[in-house]
Write a structure and sequence with these properties.
The structure is a single chain. The radius of gyration is 17 Å and the shape is globular. It has an 8-stranded mixed sheet with strand order 5-4-1-6-7-9-8-10, sandwiched between helices. The protein has a two-stranded antiparallel sheet with strand order 2-3. It has helices spanning about 15-30, 55-60, 65-70, 75-90, 100-105, 120-130, 145-150, 170-185, 205-215, 250-265; strands at about 35-40, 45-50, 95-100, 115, 140, 160-165, 190-200, 220-225, 235-245, 270-275. α1 runs parallel beside α5 (about 100-105) and α8 packs parallel to α9. It is of the alpha/beta class. α6 links the parallel β4 (about 115) and β5 (about 140). The relative contact order is 0.17.
Length: about 280
């Protein structure tokens, strides 16, 4: 059993970046009247108490959602993201942060199918509490990679898979694109969004090489990254590889990333969205 718990990092700059992209992808799916399928392979606990012991220990959220919480934003993506986080807080002060399964549950419609997979017992118990109001969300105690293999292709035909492991295991950098590649063989029209950390060691290059091979086979892969200025140790940046990105996603994410970089890093960080060209 892996020990990672996201409560120490919930609401940090990486979450702002990742969850803004998630909101844009879900919004695009909801624009069509037909149902869509969403699976969160590594769901976590769904809701995070920013006054709890884990969040207090690191305080990472203060340099993430804490910096933009009260801001007036112009980009569509950041506006949708902030409205979702504010709705979870009931329009009051920032006290709680929604994880990706709660964001999806709030943005989905009754006709859509939402599945959240989580293996860690304590996180699973908390996840069930966080999603108790959403009776139609299916929660499964299982390995996220196994869930991706077992539950795709979905009956709805169209949809999104969010793959967001802890990367405690170095093998995950190769396992993520390999798992997406196998799922694509069954579900070629699916959208796959894989989050990855950018660390000084550069291990994410193995992941990008794997997605580059998919791009080399003619599959569209967009990569969105946000880098901290002068990171030193720890998380240097955050990335998201999106397979089969919908039209308009890259421009919308670029606009949101530029705005969040300004708010989070006072314009000193780096950001960008690009298409992988294959390897």
């Amino acid at each position: 059993m892996l020990s990672y718990q996201h409560g120490y990092h919930a609401g940090n700059f990486a979450d702002v970046h990742k969850h803004t992209a998630l909101c844009l992808l879900l919004r695009d799916l909801a624009r069509q009247s037909s149902p869509f399928f969403f699976i969160d392979t590594h769901a976590g606990r769904g809701r995070y108490d920013l006054s709890g012991p884990q969040a207090r220990k690191t305080g990472e959220w203060k340099d993430g959602i804490g910096r933009i919480w009260a801001m007036k934003v112009a980009s569509e993506g950041l506006a949708l993201y902030l409205s979702t986080v504010r709705a979870v807080n009931g329009g009051g002060a920032l006290r709680t942060y929604p994880g990706s399964p709660l964001i999806a549950a709030r943005l989905a419609r009754p006709v859509d199918e939402i599945v959240a997979a989580e293996l860690h017992p304590a996180e699973l118990t908390a996840l069930k509490r966080a999603l108790a109001a959403f009776a139609d969300v299916r929660i499964e105690r299982r390995d996220g990679f196994d869930a991706l293999a077992a539950l795709t292709p979905p009956a709805a035909g169209r949809g999104l898979a969010l793959i967001d492991p802890s990367y405690e295991l170095k093998d995950d950098y190769a396992r993520v694109p390999a798992s997406v590649g196998r799922a694509l063989a069954r579900w070629p029209d699916g959208i796959f969004a894989a989050w990855y950390p950018i660390l000084p060691e550069g291990r994410h290059q193995d992941l990008l090489a794997g997605f580059g091979r998919l791009a080399g086979a003619g599959i569209p892969v967009a990569v969105a990254e946000l880098h901290r200025p002068a990171p030193g140790r720890g998380l240097a940046g955050t990335g998201l590889a999106v397979v089969n990105p919908p039209p308009g996603f890259e421009a919308a994410q670029e606009a949101a990333s530029a705005e969040m970089a300004d708010f989070l890093f006072k314009g000193a960080g780096r950001h960008g969205v690009r298409q992988l060209t294959g390897s």
